[in-house]
Amino acid sequence: MDFIIQAIVSGTLMGSIYGLAALGLTLIFGVIKVINFAHGSCLMVGMYAAYWVVMLTGVNPYLALIVVVPLLFFFGYFLQDIVIKPVLEAQSDVREPTEVIIVTSGVWYILDNITLMIFGAEYRVVQTSITGKAFEIGEIIVSTPKLYGLIATVIVSVALVWFLKYTKMGKAIRAASLDREAASLMGINQYRVYNIAFGIGTAIMGVVGCVLIPFYYVFPTVGVIFDVKCFIIVVLGGLGSIPGALLGGVIIGLIESIGAQFMTSTWTELIVYLVFLAVLFVKPAGLFGEKRDW
C-alpha cells in the first residue's frame, strides 16, 4: 500500500508542474483563441535561460526567476507583436485564424533548431543545493525540488486569478477573451491585450523552466515532451479554464506515476490518451469547459 501512496504523492507533485506549464497555454488560447504550437519551445527557451543564469552567476535557480520571468515575458510579448499579430490583422474577420497554427509551428522549428546549432544536442543538468534532495514523511519520500514546483504552481495560479479579477488590465483581458469586437468598441486595444496575455503565458513557462532545472535535463527538444502534455491537459481540463489546466495536469501526473508501478511507460502513455478520449466522449468541452462559440 505504501508504494501506491508514494506514487500518488509523486504524481501529484509532477502533475502540478504539468498543470503550471499548461496554465500559460490555456491563458493564451482563452484570450487570443489561437493554438500556440511553439508553447513547448518557449519552455525550452525558459529552461536554457535559467540554466545559463545559474551557470554564469551561481545563483539559486529560484532566484533566477528575477531574470528569467521578465525575459520570457518580453520574448512572448514581441513574439506575439511581431510574428502573430500580422496574421491576426490580416484575418481580423476570422474567429480562429488557422494560419497561426502554421506560423507557431514555424516558430517551434526555428527555435528548436537555432538552439541545436548554438548549444548542440547534449543533455545538460544543473547541480544545485537541492538537486536530489528529499525528505521523509513516515515511509513516504517527498522530492524537495518537486515540492517547490507545487508551491510555485499554487503561487502563480493565485496571482494569475487575482490579476485577472482585480486589475484593470486583467479585466481587459477577460473582456477581450469573451468578445473581442465588443471589447474593441469599449476602447480596449485588443492587440495590446493579446501581446500582454501572450507575454504572461510565456513568462509562466519561464517559471516552469526555473522549477524544472534542479531535477530535469535541458536539451533543444525538451519542449516537445511538455508541448504534447500541455495540449492534452488544456483540452482535458477545458479550453481556457485555469482550474481545468491544474486538475488536468494532476490527472496526467497521477496516471504516469501510478501506471509506472504496474506497466511500462509505453502503456502508461496509452492510458493517458484513452482517459483523454473518454473524457472528451462524455464531456466534449472538457472537465471545466463551457460550450462556447469559439
- Biggest sheet: strands side by side, in what order? 1-2
Report, as a whole number of angstroms, the end-to-end distance: 45 Å
What share of residues are in beta strands? under 5%
- Main sheet overview: 2 strands, antiparallel
The shape is globular
Which regions have little confidence, pLDDT < 50, spanning 5+ residues?
Answer: none
| Strand elements, count | 2
- Helix/strand-derived category reads mainly alpha
Helix content: over 70%
Q: Mean pLDDT, nearest integer?
A: 87
The whole-angstrom Rg is: 19 Å
Enumerate how many helices there are, as a single number.
11
SSE succession: HHHHEEHHHHHHH
Count of domain modules: 1
Q: Which labels suit this protein?
A:
294 residues; mainly alpha; two-stranded antiparallel ribbon; 2 strands; globular
What would you say this structure looks like, in words?
The structure is a single chain. The longest helix has 31 residues, at 2-32. Strand 1 and strand 2 form a beta hairpin. This protein has helices spanning 2-32, 39-57, 65-90, 99-119, 144-166, 168-178, 180-185, 190-212, 222-237, 242-259, 265-282; strands at 134-137, 140-143. The chain has one domain. It has a two-stranded antiparallel sheet. With 294 residues, it is mainly alpha-helical.
Structure in a nutshell:
With 294 residues, the chain is mostly helical.
Write the layout of secondary structure elements.
Blueprint: H1 2-32, H2 39-57, H3 65-90, H4 99-119, E1 134-137, E2 140-143, H5 144-166, H6 168-178, H7 180-185, H8 190-212, H9 222-237, H10 242-259, H11 265-282
